[in-house]
């Protein structure tokens, strides 16, 4: 691993190693396995793009029968010009009566996850929980409970393991933090 990397105009330094990430993913998977052992085929909804690497590692540690969909919050095409209204794309079929685990890369202010949970609740699932790789407690402003948090961090900007800085850095296996 390189200790310092350059992405676009900024320099980043290693903050969390791949081994530490793996331990955190293992711990959260163990909790999910215990909590969902009696549920009928839970569905993991992984939010693109940032959660692809987390989902890939997490799901290999899940020991119950499950379904996976990759979803994205997309702005409505056409007449809406505000960009504020978003819909959910990528779902396969109805979620009515299903147990849903949303898999996110990072919950910061909570705006995105709150919107996603509202859209999903409208489909009358049996349950909806959030599993995020990173949670920023000092930044979170919403009431939606974030039940599964693999790691908590401060308000710093991070990249790697799926997370990008203007599309760069997603393939890094360690987490890097922006330097001053
Ligand atoms: P929220 O709606 O919770 O404020 O923001 C969530 C989204 O902001 C994340 O899914 C991610 O796309 C982006 N984000 C927030 N903090 C970071 C960060 O530290 N690094 C990166 N790469 N993206 C972040
Ligand atoms: Mg995201």
Spell out the key features of this protein:
alpha/beta, globular, four-stranded antiparallel beta sheet, single chain, binds magnesium ion
Helix content: 10-25%
- The geometry reads as globular
Mean pLDDT: 94
How many H/I helical runs? 3
Q: What structural class do the secondary elements suggest?
A: alpha/beta
| Spatial ordering of strands, largest sheet | 5-4-3-6-7-8
In total, the number of domains comes to: 1
**Which second-level CATH architecture applies?**
3-Layer(aba) Sandwich
Proportion of β residues?
25-35%
Weakly predicted, low-confidence segments:
none
Cofactors, ions, other ligands: guanosine-5'-monophosphate, magnesium ion
DSSP strand tally: 10
Radius of gyration computed on alpha carbons:
17 Å
Quick description:
This protein has helices at 18-35, 52-59, 111-121; strands at residues 4-7, 10-16, 43-47, 67-75, 86-89, 99-107, 127-135, 148-152, 158-159, 175-178. It is an alpha/beta fold and 180 residues long.
Written overview of the protein:
- With 180 residues, the chain is α/β, with parallel strands linked by helices.
- The chain has a single domain, classed as Rossmann fold, CATH 3.40.50.2020.
- 21% of the residues lie in helices and 32% in strands.
- The protein is built from three helices and ten strands, in the order ββαβαβββαββββ.
- The strands form two sheets. A six-stranded mixed beta sheet has the order 5-4-3-6-7-8, with helices on both faces.
- β3 (43-47), α2 (52-59) and β4 (67-75) form a beta-alpha-beta unit.
- α1 (18-35) packs across α2.
- The mean pLDDT is 94.
- Bound molecules: guanosine-5'-monophosphate (5GP) and magnesium ion.
- Magnesium ion (MG) binds at residues 47, 50, 104-105, 112.
